[in-house]
Amino acid sequence: MKNILNLLLRRTEYKSLYRRIFYTLMIMVIYIIGSNIEILSTANGNKNIDAFSNIGVAAMGGNFTAVTLFSLGLGPYLTAMLIVNLLALRNPEKLMLQTKKERQFKEKAFTMILAIVQAYYLLNMYVKHGDNRIHIMAMGMLVLIAGSMLLIWLADQNTMYGIAGPMPIVVMSIIKSIMQSNAQNDIHLKIIVWIAIACILLFCAVLLIIIERAEYRIDYRDILNTSKDKQSFIAWKLNPGGSLAIMISMSLFMIIKAIIELCIILITQKQVLTWMDFKHPLGITVYMILLFSLAYFLSLLMLNPKRKATDFLKSGNYIEGIHPGKQTESYLTHKARKISLFSGIMIVIIIGLPFYFTLIIPVLSKEIYLAIQILMLIYISINITDVIKNEMYFNRYKNFMNKYW
């Protein structure tokens, strides 16, 4: 083991990867420090925060159990990016004409609006009525929004100089959430129940890995490939959206819930919204619909059959029996919709369906929430592993590509 480690450390083509990993570790240290800096006393705050709220916020690098510098997490930013991209999906040609500055302005504008809503929602749970409430709320929102922007900047820096962008921050947040929930709740179950939960979790994890690794292939004719033995094909993953749909669906659900609750507070001065709670079937159903919709549209966005059809038209490649242009676009769009539909259904079954079991078997709700967090952790870890593999692959041939690029 020692010899293998020494060999890896001496491999010059992996030095860039080591620098990226070290940079990511430094950002993780900053995140841990910032997530433990409390900016508001929560001693008299809301102790009955929904368990799903903790999971949803943790899936975006945030924390609602305490008001810290990074409590908002990356939720406002990733949700804003999703909104901008889905709006642009209606007119891809217009998106191509937009400059980077224009896209960033739209993303930052949406991010600021969502951050203000979430900051007010979070502080409203902890800041009681009093003479200094307005000042405390104003200063608290300012610090929370600044902390969220700092975390977004760290995620951007990690994308450029580290590994996997915002994903390591999310992984650290989920691990912290799991540790906090286990520390607060003593779980005592029979050994047979633990074995059953472990078997179901293992089955779901294996199924998730298979779906993540599997791909759908569409054969086509490459005019530059004259070999009869080697067939060219389009390789589309069965789950193109990856873990992004799961992460953003939870953040978007929390934002929608926050907006509805804030509207009710302003109109009726009441804060209770039971039907959007995960102890209510309607709340779970709303989340399931949201999860499916995001998984479906994100998959379509990632596959982008229209751009693939345009590339075929430019290169001269074609699918046998399908005319180039509109017919190829229609054919690829039909295939992309089928893949996206499959992706949405499987994600809802694996991640969303277990939430209904918390209603059927409320005694096991804590264990089910724990299992969902572990599944999310596995899923995001798969994506991080893929990023590291790609980095190792490109580093191995970096000298060759630099020579001829």
Key phrases:
globular, two-stranded antiparallel ribbon, mainly alpha, Preprotein translocase SecY subunit, 405 residues, 2 strands, single chain, 71% helix
Helix residue percentage: over 70%
Low-confidence stretches: none
CATH evolutionary superfamily of the largest domain: SecY subunit domain
Shape type: globular
- CATH C-level label of the largest domain: Mainly Alpha
Question: What is the count of β-strands?
Answer: 2
Describe the SSE topology.
Layout: H1 2-10, H2 15-34, H3 51-58, H4 75-88, H5 92-97, H6 100-126, H7 133-161, H8 167-184, H9 191-213, E1 215-220, E2 232-237, H10 244-268, H11 281-303, H12 305-315, H13 326-352, H14 354-360, H15 365-396, H16 398-404
Structural write-up:
InterPro entries: SecY/SEC61-alpha (IPR002208), SecY2 (IPR014269), SecY_dom_sf (IPR023201). Component of the accessory SecA2/SecY2 protein translocase complex required to export cell wall proteins. May form heterotrimers with SecE and SecG subunits. Its main location: membrane. It contains 16 helices and two strands. The model has no long low-confidence stretch (mean pLDDT 79). A two-stranded antiparallel ribbon has the order 1-2. It has two domains: 186 residues, SecY subunit domain (Preprotein translocase SecY subunit); 204 residues, Orthogonal Bundle (Preprotein translocase SecY subunit), CATH 1.10.3370.10. It starts with a helix and ends with a helix. The protein is an all-alpha fold and 405 residues long. Helix 12 runs antiparallel to helix 13.
